[in-house]
Design goal:
Largest sheet of chain A: 5 strands, antiparallel
Strand content of chain A: 15-25%
Number of helices of chain B: 7
Order of helices and strands of chain A: HHEHHEEEEEHHEEHEHEHHHH
Strand content of chain B: 15-25%
Structural class of chain B: alpha/beta
Oligomer: heterodimer
Number of strands of chain B: 9
Number of domains of chain A: 2
Helix content of chain B: 25-40%
Largest sheet of chain B: 5 strands, parallel
Radius of gyration of chain B: 17 Å
Number of helices of chain A: 12
Radius of gyration of chain A: 35 Å
Strand order of the largest sheet of chain A: 5-2-9-1-10
Helix content of chain A: 55-70%
Strand order of the largest sheet of chain B: 6-7-8-3-9
Number of domains of chain B: 1
Shape of chain A: elongated
Chain lengths: ~400, ~210
């Protein structure tokens, strides 16, 4: 019989198998909770970022919240230069463009024919720097010789007409192409001037919810027809955001009573919520791991204490305390490695299942485990092995001296 | 290996009475000066304390124990492991066998540290002391005399320069004691080692080269 087997026989009788089994199971549960929440955190983060790139383009339109004070004109809804500079200095802001409104009177009209009665409706225009707009039509240019004013409408307006108004009134539905073929008549007046002009829809945007004209036209019209007494402050800003899922963005907007399209910052809210929930779940995992570690440390101390006489005799025979402690360390390392392997297998199974669930509702997550999850679970295992091994060696050294 | 006592006396003895002997409180007493060194005293006079102190188990003594000129208090756990595996063998009065494993495994627990003897050589020792039939028995189930023989076989299964024997034949009949002694002498001579043996009195078969009375 080999000496290893003799030693194991001597030492094994002092093992508390049931406690070790419980501690191993507990450790596995702690590992699993911690690392599945980390994996989900990485997966969700990746998904939100991907969606942001696909749909949101990092553009946000910001305005101040309208309250009773605004209505009675105590507080202005325009952004002052100071407020704009402050926004520009925020980490999450890449660029800010001002949305300019018309300072003149504008109205659309028809002269009327057999089908459509003559009408006149007051309107408004807004403009933004071209860089902020997702319209690339060659017609989106204006100078004083242009035959018409190029206009960009929110795509939602067309939808509202096609699926709301047109259907209920038995009117034909209009495609983007057809809408672009029609010319509308406008009357622009102010500052003692009056002009009749043609307007043409050159594109639709998902980005800014307004009737947009080129900035060149707006500047010309404002200087020509604009009333000098009107405020020059912009009441809406368009912002290119580095990361619209950033929780600081939401915090800043809330703190300053600013508003934006909530749809576009849902990523941020979701992200914050996820961070909180997954953070709490991870903490539970960490707590269970700590408890399991304590159970391991205590049961190994107990096992070694129970084997006190045997260890004493072995030391007297000439066994080195390190070679004796090695047997306990190997047993513990085996159990932690088992937890590590079970954990990775469990994570792969769980991930597979979660991916299926997400696929069913139309989202795709990454196929493999996140590298950080693997690196961190290896590191945690090494730290756990080191912690108890040091405690075991310390106890043996004390007995040997 | 040279074991020297310098002004050595176990603390309990020093405190109870003013002990005077050939061993206690001597300057540079060379314990293993001869091949067979017998230490004689009545019970309770400190023989076992001396053996345990030399082996590094007891630390409650005045004076110093030197091994090859080094005070044993300066030895590390690694030093002791090395000395106990390769230089210093021992038969404890209390034997210190593992009662839960077989007689054979008890011997192998020592032998396999240095792979000193082959299985057939160990078998010869078992046979020589009439223990072969009991080799597979759990040590705890053997009589004290049988256990004493197992402890002696175990002590011979390692390389050593000095072997410490603390009343090794106390539970053996004279014939078995003689056989055991011959085996010990044989192994010591082969290894060119010295014997330090304690006893209540001199026996006719030991024939010591040095006798120290406590």
């Amino acid at each position: 019989m080999k000496s290893t087997t003799i030693l194991n026989k001597l030492i094994r009788k002092n093992q508390k198998k049931s406690i070790l089994l419980l501690a191993t199971i507990g450790m596995f549960i702690g590992y699993f909770i911690l690392f599945i929440s980390l994996q989900l955190y990485f997966d969700m983060g990746a998904m939100l970022h991907r969606d942001k790139d696909l749909f949101q383009k990092d553009f946000l339109v910001i305005n101040k919240k309208i309250s009773l004070l605004n209505t009675v004109k105590f507080v202005k809804t325009g952004f002052s230069n100071k407020e704009i500079t402050q926004l520009r200095n925020q980490d999450f802001v890449q660029e800010i463009g001002l949305i300019t409104s018309n300072k003149f009177k504008v109205g659309a009209y028809t002269d009327g024919n057999d089908e459509i009665p003559p009408f006149y409706a007051e309107m408004f225009f807004e403009s933004v720097p071209d860089d902020y707009l997702d319209v690339s039509s060659k017609d989106w240019q204006w100078d004083s010789l242009s035959p018409f004013i190029p206009i960009v409408l929110p795509r939602d307006y067309l939808k509202l007409y096609n699926f709301g108004f047109a259907q209920s009134q038995n009117l034909p539905q209009i495609s983007e192409e057809i809408a672009g073929k029609a010319l509308a008549d406008f009357i622009i007046e102010g500052n003692g001037h009056k002009a009749r002009m043609k307007g043409k829809i050159v594109g639709f945007t998902d980005r800014i919810n307004s009737i947009l004209v080129p900035e060149t036209f707006m500047n010309w019209a404002n200087s020509h027809f604009g009333r000098a007494d009107k405020s020059k402050q912009s009441s809406r800003l368009v912002m290119i955001c580095k990361d619209p899922t950033s929780p600081e963005l939401i915090r800043f907007l809330n703190d300053h009573n600013y508003e934006t399209n909530t749809q576009q910052t849902k990523g941020s809210r979701l992200n914050t919520l996820l961070q909180i929930i997954l953070g709490m779940v991870s903490m539970i995992g960490v707590l269970i791991i700590i408890l399991a570690l304590v159970v391991f440390v205590v049961s190994f101390k107990l096992m070694i204490a129970r084997a006190h006489d045997t260890i004493d005799k072995l030391l007297l025979l000439g066994y080195h305390y390190l070679s004796l402690s090695k047997r306990y360390i190997l047993l513990y390392s085996f159990l932690i490695s088992l937890v590590f392997i079970l954990n990775i297998s469990g994570l792969l199974l769980a991930k597979n299942y979660i991916n299926l669930l997400f696929n069913e509702i139309g989202y795709s997550l990454t196929d493999s485990l996140n590298l950080w999850v693997i690196v961190m679970s290896i590191s945690l295992s090494i730290v756990l092995i080191l912690l108890n091994s040091l405690s075991i060696i310390k106890q043996f050294k004390k007995q040997a001296s | 290996m040279k074991i020297t006592l310098n002004q050595f006396i176990p603390k309990p003895l020093a405190e109870t009475h003013n002990a005077i002997s050939a061993v206690w409180k001597q300057d540079n007493l060379y314990l293993n000066a001869a091949d067979v060194n017998l230490i004689i005293s009545e019970s309770g006079k400190g023989k076992s304390s001396l053996i345990s102190s030399i082996y590094g188990i007891r630390k409650d003594y005045h004076g110093a124990i030197l091994i090859d000129g080094h005070n044993i208090t300066s030895f590390s756990a690694t030093d002791w492991s090395d000395i106990r595996q390769k230089q210093l063998s021992i038969v404890f009065q209390s034997l210190k066998l593992f009662p839960e494993i077989s007689a054979w495994d008890n011997v192998q627990s020592k032998n396999q540290l240095q792979n000193h003897k082959s299985d057939s050589e160990v078998e010869q020792l078992f046979t020589g002391l009439g223990m072969m039939d009991y080799a597979k028995q759990i040590a705890g189930s053997l009589s004290f005399g049988q256990q004493q023989r197992i402890a002696i076989i175990r002590a011979l299964c390692q390389p050593f320069s000095v072997i410490l024997l603390d009343e090794p034949f106390s539970h053996l009949d004279e014939e078995n004691a003689k056989t055991a002694w011959n085996l010990i002498r044989e192994e010591s001579q082969q290894q060119n080692a010295q014997i330090i043996i304690t006893g209540l009195s001199n026996t006719n078969f030991i024939k010591p080269d040095q006798i120290l009375n406590i």
